[in-house]
Structures are given as C-alpha cells and as structure tokens.
Design goal:
It is built from three helices and five strands, in the order ααβββββα. The protein has 93 residues and is of the alpha+beta class. It has two domains: 40 residues; 51 residues, IHF-like DNA-binding proteins (HU Protein, Chain A). α1 packs across α2. The longest helix is centred in the first third of the chain and has 20 residues. The protein starts with a helix and ends with a helix. The mean pLDDT is 95.
C-alpha cells in the first residue's frame, strides 16, 4: 500500500473527501516526523514504536572500486513492531 492508496482507503472508510483524507494523512506523518526529529519516541499501542538511532562515523568501501571512504555519522529512524502486530501477521502462517 502506498500513500495515495492509504488516502483513498481512509476517505472511503471515514466518509471523507479525498482532500480531507489527504490532509489527515499529511498531519499524521508530519507530526511523527517532527516528534522523531525532536528526539521523541513514538509508540502506537498494538502496532509498534518508532525511534531515532544514531550511527557513528566509520571507514567503508566503495563496492565498485574497492576504495576506502569515510562514512559520516548519521541518524536513522527505526521501527519495532509490537507484539499484537507480530501475532496478527503470523496468524495465517
């Protein structure tokens, strides 16, 4: 499912216009992004949690040339699925 499919589904399920559903999705995603940038952890019970992970600098290799390169430190968002979501997706297995 991509973002436009999510907007369409939300509009249909909640009897909203596509524009209203799009605005809801945008607000939700922007709020999550801002919380992560501020260093906050996001927990959605029954679904999972999001947090930022810091990765230090390291020496890597260019896979094409084999040349060593210095990789800068970075922050990356990290998602961990909650128990209920894990159980839900594995019920059919």
């Amino acid at each position: 499912m991509n973002k436009s499919e999510l907007v369409t589904k939300l509009a249909y399920e909640c009897n909203l216009s596509t524009e209203e559903a799009d605005q809801c999705v945008e607000i939700f995603l922007d709020t999550m992004k801002k919380a992560l940038i501020e260093g906050n952890r996001i927990e959605i019970r029954g679904f999972g949690s999001f947090k930022m992970k810091d990765y230090g600098a390291y020496v890597g290799r260019n896979p094409k040339t084999g040349e060593t390169v210095q990789v800068k430190p970075k922050r990356m968002p990290f998602f961990r699925a909650g128990k209920e979501l894990k159980d839900f997706v594995n019920d059919d297995a």
